[in-house]
Amino acid sequence: MSEWIGQITDWFLTATSLDGYSVLLLTIPLAVIQGLFGFFPFATLVLLHISLLGIVEGLLASWIAGTLAGLIVYLLCRYWFTDWFNRKWMNKLRKYEKWQKGLDRYGVWAVIFLRTIPIVPNNIISFMSAISNLKLRSYAWSNMVGNLSSIWLFGLISAPIVFPGVNLSELVLSYVLFLLVLGIVFIIRQRMMTNKEHKA
Question: What does the longest C-alpha to C-alpha distance in the chain come to?
Fold first, then answer.
């Protein structure tokens, strides 16, 4: 597997002449295409970034590409191509209706959860957010946090494939702490909302 990834990486470097973070000039547009049409899994770009830039910098590049793509797709669906989106995707979104209700209820937390756990395709999350009552600012930061969580998790899973024998203990520990902080913030936020509803 690692040999196959190495061959793909060598081919990519030879074909594009891109190196370092300049690879984002190609992978960000690819991430937007993936975010609109889902032709290929986003994990492909994560593996490419990791193999080209190393684990930490590869995850950072993937986070930048994924976050920008998610935001661009949201804006396109919400403000520019609403009619096209409604014609092409509304019927397909019906099978995700229960998640749409969850997104309308929990807002940013639903985006973070759905980005972290691969239950719903990446592009569908952006589409559902675009037709929800989620405001741009709220979506923007939940998209950032959700993509960070998703890419971090995938990096932990895929890094040993690209770099066999690598020590990921610090990356695992930091991810567990990240999830713990997210969980605490979610619980506090939900209690505040519950108290506010009771007072109303």
Answer: 64
CA distance 116 to 137: 20
Short-list 131, 134, 100, CA closest to 114 = 100
- Per-residue pLDDT in tens (0 to 9) along the chain, 200 residues: 445 545 555 666 666 666 677 888 888 888 988 888 877 788 888 888 888 888 889 999 999 999 999 999 899 888 776 666 666 656 666 666 666 676 767 678 888 888 888 777 787 788 888 877 788 898 999 999 999 999 998 888 877 776 777 788 888 899 999 999 988 988 888 787 777 666 65
Q: Quick check: 31 and 10 in contact, CB under 8 A?
A: no
Q: Does the model's pTM come out above 0.70?
A: yes
